[in-house]
Amino acid sequence: MTITKNLFFGLSLLAITTLACKTSKPSVVVNTNPKQPNIVFIMADDHAVSAISAYRDWLAEIAPTPNIDRIANEGMLMTRMFNTNSICGPSRAAILTGKYSHVSGFFKNEKGGDFDGSQMTFPKLFQKSGYQTAVVGKWHLGTSPTGFDYSKVMINWGGQGTYFNPVFLENGRDTIVEKKRHSTAQVAHDAMKWIGEGRDKDKPFMLMYQFKAPHRPWEPAEEFKDLFSDGDLPHPANFNDDYKGRKAASEQWMEIENHMNRRDLKVAPPKGLSKKELKGYYSYGNKGDFWTPNDTLKGADLKNWKYQAYIKDYLRCVAGVDKAVGQMLDYLKANDLLDNTVIIYTSDQGFYLGEHGWFDKRWMYEESFKMPFMIRYPELIKPKSVNSDLLLNIDFAPTLLDLAGIDVPDEMQGTSFKPLLESNKKVTTRDAVYYHYYEFPKWHNVQPHYGVRTDRYKLIHYYYNMDEWELFDLKKDPNEMENLYGTSGTKKLTQKLKNKIKELQVEYKDDMTLEEMRAMTDIVIERVYNEENINKR
Ligand code: SGN
Ligand code: CA
Q1: How remote is the CA of residue 108 from the centroid of ligand 2, in Å?
Q2: What fold, for 435-531?
Q3: Could you report the per-residue pLDDT of 368-419, keeping only the tens digit for each?
Q4: How far, in Å, from the CA of 217 to the mean position of ligand 1?
Q5: Which numeric CATH code is attached to 41-221+310-423?
Q6: How does strand 391-392 pair with strand 76-82?
Q7: Which one of 216, 253, 261 would you pick to mutate in the ligand 1 pocket, going by the greatest count of ligand atoms within 8 A of its CB?
Q8: 41: CA distance to ligand 1 center in Å?
């Protein structure tokens, strides 16, 4: 209790300091860039790097994304863009504020409270410096968006939005149920509509346009339902991981084989179930309850059946996003906006498409730790550029501000990577990235952990109700199957990485005690500003 109190005291102190910093700055932000490019920031939800063909990963030939790839082909592809905390709200908060989760105050989706929209965010700084700003689509931060001239964000399904009949909150006031289009097409429609009709055209604009797709429960639009219907898709290399030497990994609830529910796999319920029974029917499977669609399907065949249903629907949702991105690029071109606009495509985090036998995200393992990121702006970036520096989602805000010539506040913890875009010459960037995940046990029983990743190595500490370390050599073991922690010859390396963790924890003000960290996981603050409350008003 005292720890929780202390923590809150700490967090509010931080807020006060933040405020103090803010007031000491001039209230009008100076824009030193006469060009003031427009920004179109496109973000999907749970879009894995492997499901974007520009990355030439294992699904590239099977499920090409030609439209998303255009951004990379005509701009730069980042191959080592990482997340600071691999779940939705925390990543979005990090993107908006340029800060780690414990500093923005939004560190878990479940029972961690809502986003403090009164704090400094990069859209607010754009707005102050004369930009028109808008956000359309998924938001998932509880409180209504701040810093936007226009907002239309999904609020149903606990802020997740739904694929069909999504409910939106427009400008924090009006509730609109959109029944005409699939959520992906709706978000694309709203984004283009705002560019075409919704803004003051004398000003540059910054639009954040964020899909629900391809998030669980992976429900594609009708037009994509027949994709991939011929035969089975391949499995990733470590589909049948046995989690040997990785205790935390062996205890999760996110295995395709054992934790997918009937809603995920689109198994129709029997007739006549009540609303409550229907909920139970659909969520059956979440915690490892065994089920099979027929009595003969068992073992490896059952696992493959579940995987095929999952991966195909996931990739069908991706096809919808790819089409929508193509429409946006064409729209910008037709309206003479393509080359004076910075276009970004990314996702709030990565995702498992059967790697380690999993779906979902949360871990510091590469598939969920990595975010896709590509950026097109011909004014600065040469086509077909590829960059492999260690970058983070807290760098987005400083980079965008820098590109628009707006001062980057000192309180932001990320760094602008504009110099890398300009020439892709070797400028010194960080030599390691730091990560911290808190939410437990919901939804997938992933242990809270922090860690560090360098060019070649990764060290992770699971500290919540176990004391486990994992060390990986990413060069020799890119799939992170062999935990080298404690093995002979790794002592010096481990110490070096532990020192690096300490150094980064101090730098990012995450040098709390383990007890204080655990208290963050244990905090229960109901999220108040959700769909039900909006409807009650
Ligand atoms: C939902 C999903 C989870 C998922 C979280 C977080 N369950 O709760 O599987 O991990 O979202 O996702 S579901 O049955 O409701 O689909 S996030 O992208 O918002 O972080
Ligand atoms: Ca997500």
Answers
A1: 12
A2: Arylsulfatase, C-terminal domain (3.30.1120)
A3: 999 999 999 999 999 999 999 999 999 999 999 999 999 999 999 999 999 9
A4: 9
A5: 3.40.720.10
A6: parallel
A7: 216
A8: 23
Residue 299 phi/psi, 5-degree rounding, is 55, -135
CATH 3.40.720.10 residue ranges for the chain? 41-221+310-423
Nearest-ligand number for the alpha carbon of 108: 1
Please count the CA atoms within 13 angstroms of the CA of 424 that sit on its side-chain side: 14
The model's pLDDT over 466-517, given as tens digits with 9 standing for 90+, comes to 999 999 999 999 999 999 999 999 999 999 999 999 999 999 999 999 999 9
How close are the terminal C-alpha atoms of the chain, in Å?
A: 33
Q: Considering only CA atoms, which of 391, 329, 464, 379 is closest in space to residue 98?
A: 391
What are the start and end residues of each CATH 3.30.1120.10 domain in the chain? 435-531
Q: Hey, which residues does 450 pair with through a beta bridge? A: 436, 461
Where residue 248 falls among pLDDT bands split at 50, 70, 90?
A: very high
pLDDT exceeds 50 at position 306? yes
Q: Does the beta carbon of 360 lie inside 6 Å of ligand 1?
A: yes
How confident is the model over 72-127, as pLDDT tens digits? 999 999 999 999 999 999 999 999 999 999 999 999 999 999 999 999 999 999 99
Ligand 2 centroid, distance to 45 Cα (angstroms): 4
Substitution candidate for ligand 1 out of 101, 114, 138, 215 with most atoms within 8 A of CB = 215
Strand partners of residue 360: none
Ramachandran angles phi, psi of 296, nearest 5°: -90, -20
Structure tokens at 99: 């800060």
Closest protein CA for atom 3 of ligand 1:
443
Asked if residue 46 has its Cβ within 6 Å of ligand 1, the reply is: yes
pLDDT value, residue 531: 56
